[in-house]
Model the fold of this input.
Amino acid sequence: MKLHIVKYGDPVLQRAGDEITNIDGELVGFIDNMFETMYEAHGVGLAAPQVALSKKLFVMDVSSGKEKKERITCINPQIVETKGKVISEEGCLSFPGIYFEVERPEVITVSALDLHGREFTFEASGLAARCVLHENDHINGKVFIEYLSPLKRELVGKKIRKRIKAGDWDTEWD
Ligand code: NI
Done:
């Protein structure tokens, strides 16, 4: 089942998600829906708050469904190590049509629980590292425009307000 992706302006995006304490069938089904929603939206990552579930959970697949091993679910993730810095363009399914460059660590080590509640650790670089860091921000209530300078952030804000007025951004602005 496809879920509704909330856009910037919805307070759920700026609230830190709760830790997940119980991985049951309902959650596993919800995670399946998150993957379906992410693939349909042509995204490479989707965090639970983006589909209005305020929990520490995200899914990702930098191969866009082409490689099974890239289909990753991270529950209660922790970034345990970061190395280097790299600037690259980034987008977000909660900010459709908005892209800009963000500086982030280049190589990271992540530890999380999988669907069976087992802890796993992996290293990521390139797009995968960027994706983990972006989604990990979401579950901590942080969105990528927070990396912009105040001036650039205001410009993005103006663009979004225009789109809300035009009926092209289905959320309220507070
Ligand atoms: Ni995002």
Remarks:
- The chain has one domain: 11-165.
- Strands lie at 45-47, 57-60, 72-83, 86-90, 100-104, 107-113, 119-125.
- The longest strand covers residues 72-83.
- The chain has a mean pLDDT of 96.
